[in-house]
Amino acid sequence: MPTLKLTVNGRPVSREVPGQLLLVQLLREELSLTGTHVGCDTTQCGACTVHLNGRPIKSCTTLAMSCEGGEVTTIEGIADGANLHPMQEAFRANHGLQCGYCTPGFVMASIKIVERLGPDFTDEEIREELEGNICRCTGYHNIVKSVRAGARAMAAHGGSAPVRREGEERVVDSTRSMLEQISELDPESNEAHDAASGKAK
Amino acid sequence: MKFGIGQSVHRTEDARLLRGEGRYTDDIVPPRSTRMYVVRSPHAHARIGAIDTAAALASPGVVGILTGADAAEDALGGFPTMVRGTAPGGGESLEPPLPVLALGTARYAGEPVAIVIAETVDEAKTAAELLTIEYEPLPGVPSLADAFAANAPLVWPECPGNLHTRDSFGDKAAVDAAFDGAATVVDLDIVVSRVAVSSMEPRTALGIWDENEGRYELTAGVQSPHMIRGLLANCIFKVPLNRIRVAAHDVGGGFGMKGVPHPELALVLWAARRFGRPVRWVAERSESFLSDCHSRDHLAHCELALDENAKFLALRYRGKANLGPYMTLANMHCAFGNIGHLSGVYTFVAVHAEVETYFTNTVPIGPYRGAGRPEATVVVERLVDKAAMKLGMDPADLRERNLIPADQFPFNTGFVFTYDSGDYPEGLRIAREASDWDGFEQRRIASLRRGKLRGIGMAQVVEIAVGLMDEMGSITIEADGSVTIGTGFHNHGQGQETTMRQLASEFLSVPPEKIRYLPSDTDEQPSGFGSAGSRAAVVGGVLIQTIAEKLIAKAKRVAAVLLEADAEEIEFHDGTFSARRTNRSATLAEVAQLAHQPMRLPEGVEAGLSHKQMIRVDGPTFPNACHVCEVEIDPETGKTEFVSYVVCEDVGKAINPMIVAGQMHGGVAQGLGQVLGEFIAYDEDGQLQTGSFMDYQMPRALDLPNIRTIANNVPSPNNPLGIKGAGESGTVGALPAGLNAVCNALQPLGIEHFDMPATPMRVWKAIRDAGGMARLRAAVDAP
Predict the structure, then answer these.
(1) Residue B410, preceding bond cis, omega within 30 degrees?
(2) Which residues of B230-264 are buried (b: 16+ CB within 10 A; e: fewer)?
(3) Which of B383, B319, B373 lies closest to B346 in space, CA to CA?
(4) Least CB-CB distance to B707: which of A33, A139, A189?
């Protein structure tokens, strides 16, 4: 069997693998990184999305051997210790996940969408960009909110240099914490649910 | 209380799921694990001849192969139905249980015929290729319509006409009389299409045989571990309950489908025992389409009678439902169990329904979010819109005229249900205003000027929740005041890990970080019913409240010792026990500590602080909602776009409004998915044509609108917390609201009804067949 060398979440990995081994099998079965999921086997659902050399890819249809020398980042590799990545935090703050199975793929895809588009985009653009990921639980409503909030938080956090669109001015109060940014950006968090009286006006 | 009832607290389970540290079944790899591959029938209906396993057994990595003959030799049973019918001519109807492996005859394409156990999946698949199975194809029944066609082949020779059962509900004479005296009658033939539930995590199972204990251990993606254990013990293996353990950790969506026992749950356990090694199985998506219970698949002819004031008199329903070739736990429930929804939110004089169920050579039918509720409700709500069209009335006005008034609750429909509470007119008013229903005509014309058809659809719906009213729970308060709660509910996305903590926090005044929610495991808790039918919030609310009250009463006796007072003098408030008319008080932790020191307790005061109890809640609850959906259709391409969506819902009371809104969003999406493009197609030979996400149109982000949710909660009198449930309501409303919107868009072309799904091809053809857009353009261009 050939030897594959690559970096996964910053750690060098070297092992003999059969040529037909898929990247997702390497991650899940060989490296026990089970946060990357398989939802469809045909590159339709995006539950298996990881980053390869800074680009989002679907690991269920990528041969492990094709990643020779590459840098792979999985959902397990994006939090900063106890602190979630701003995009993870945004999904949590906006109820952007229910069963959680598709979630790692959405988070990994969303991070790259935001890095590409910068923090400002329309809901329509987010929905279009999320074309490669399927969620069965949320109806996408709160995922769209999460990505919007995550984008602003990523910009505020400075973690991933967002690309600003030409001619656009954007001011970010860097003194405010990421969490404040996110909760502030949660204005329509089910505002209509009047918890006190249970009666909408 | 910051973490109590009514708070939109963030979910406790999210951090692990977001970090990729969830524990789904296929993430667990016990030592010496093997993989199972299921060999499935390639024919919809075929006699199974000789199976030659020799070459496959010799293939590298193969551990063993088992067939239907082996299952028969080991006397494995099948999974039975929960609801039995009566044969058309009287007597017991034929109720073929769902076998674990086909023996002699395969009755749907995808039915398990053999299993190959090997070291790896690839090795198992390679060996499966070497398996020789002789099939003699038989004529089959590839659809519901084919089942009752003249001279249809028989799925079961002992079941003439493939008719499993026929039953009727309601007062036929009253309905006939109402129709005789009606001023207006509308009728409708409607197809409730067949869909695949498609949870994002495919079905999975891990089977372990514990030789020392003589016990089966199943870890699987299931909604109801206790019920699955009961069926495995009683029906498949015929062993005592405590010889089987079922655990379900993180489960990637269920929607009813994972509440149904499927053969693989038994197969991994059986193979683990036969071969003495753990057996892992996970479905590939194509297998999911071939073998997960499909849903819906009804055909109905229905009629609505109105008087001269446009008041609804009666509804008549003649429905046919597909069962598949075998009984599953709940396929009869989907056909019959929720027929009561035909009475809708209206003041009918009478409703009558006649339902027939048929066997076909298709994947067995099971429940999907709503389980019969959306199927019945879409009939009512389409009829209402068709009546409005015939009378030239605004559909919202017609509904309003016929809604059950708010002061009429509890409302006995005279059909099946008695509704608990609600303010339906207020719900309609809120949804009408929020959706700018009355401004629609301008939007329709604006769309038309851009060459687009615009439609608006309303559905006002009510659904029964809490069909299963029993549940077991436990709360243990440890010596330091930390609290562990257990229930039979399984969390596969609905957030019970959070809401059950909220309930415990509310009633025991304990902060969430001191509360643990036990995983769903029959070893942790011996009894329970699981998550199904929108029941966890209602039953869980009563359950946690009841047990917490018992525990506080118990703790008061201990506090009395600590505070040197009579137990009757002890009050519990905000986490503190105090003795009346004294300044003495003690925290729950202090009381818990004493409770765990029996030698310090006087005789008669029970040590420890835990309680386990089974409860039964009163009567069902009836969540309800008014949905408004707006669509725009491009007549050039036939593409339908959902442009806005409003749902005004009554869940009685929300434990966590954020989670309730999330349930609405997801429920609506599943209803709209079926309207827009999801459907299962078989060819004339019973071969599945929609076998992957490339053929089966799952709704994606761009396909769906933002969904506005507005609460119109009226507490239920049927439980002390007033909760009604939230799980299925979104789907029940979205299927009719979405379909009404599409039909409303097409109505100006003279199209009276359009059946789901609104795929571009079907919509484009309907527009073409109706003569195209020409006459509408003329109308717009006119001054």
Answers:
(1) yes
(2) bbbbebbbeeeeebbbbbbbbbbbbbbbbbbbbbb
(3) B383
(4) A139
pLDDT of B280-291, one tens digit each? 999 999 999 999
Question: Distance between CA atoms of B476 and B391, rounded to whole angstroms?
Answer: 62
Distance CA B254, CA B198 (A): 9
- Mean pLDDT to the nearest integer, B679-699: 97
∠ CA B690-B691-B696 to the nearest 5 degrees?
Answer: 50
Instruction: Please report the ipTM that was assigned to this predicted complex.
Output: 0.97
- Write the DSSP symbol of residue B346: B
Residue of B nearest to A186 (CA): B658
Judged by CB atoms within 8 Å, which residues 202-241 of B form the interface with A?
202
Whether B101 has a pLDDT exceeding 90, the answer reads yes
Whether B2 shows a pLDDT value over 90: the answer reads no
What is residue B272's predicted lDDT score, i.e. its pLDDT? 98
- Strands of B325-443 (E only): list them: 350-359, 411-412, 418-419
CB–CB of A198 and B653 under 8 A?
yes
Q: How far is B731 from chain A (nearest CA, A)?
A: 11
pLDDT tier for residue B782 given thresholds of 50, 70 and 90: low
Rounded CA-CA distance A9/A75 in Å is: 9
Torsion of CA B697, B703, B708, B713, to 10 degrees: -10
Share of chain A above pLDDT 70, in %: 79
pLDDT at A188: 41
Contacts of B198 in chain A (CB under 8 A): 136
Q: For the domain with range A3-77+171-189, which CATH number is right: 3.60.15.10, 3.40.50.1240, 3.40.630.40, 3.10.20.30? A: 3.10.20.30
Mean pLDDT of the A55-61 span: 97
Residue B318: exposed, middle, or buried by beta-carbon count in 10 A (0-12, 13-18, 19+)? middle
Length of chain B: 783
Residues of chain A positioned with their CB less than 8 A from the CB of B19:
35, 75-76, 79, 84, 88
pLDDT tens digits along B564-600: 999 999 999 999 999 999 999 999 999 999 999 999 9
Q: State how far Cα B239 lies from the chain centre.
A: 29
Provide the pLDDT confidence category of residue B82 given band limits of 50, 70 and 90.
confident
Chain B residues touching A37 at Cβ < 8 A = 24, 200-201, 252
Which letter, b or e, does each residue of B693-713 get, where b requires 16 or more Cβ atoms within 10 Å of its Cβ? beebbbbbbebbbbbbbbbbb
Q: Model confidence at B781, in pLDDT bands (50, 70, 90)?
A: low
C-alpha B89: how far from chain center:
32
pLDDT at B248 exceeding the cut of 80: yes
CA diameter of chain A: 68
In chain A, residues 149-188 whose CB comes closer than 8 Å to chain B: none
pLDDT at B23 over 60: yes
Does A31 touch chain B if contact means CB atoms closer than 8 Å?
no
d(CA A143, CA B277): 41
Could you tell me if B152 and B163 are in contact, meaning their C-beta atoms sit under 8 angstroms apart? no
Residues of chain B found within 8 Å of residue A34, distances taken between Cβ atoms = 20, 24, 26-27
Cα separation of B200 and B495, whole Å?
Answer: 17
Cβ atoms B33, B275 nearer than 8 A: no
Query: What band does B780 get if pLDDT is binned at 50, 70 and 90?
Result: low
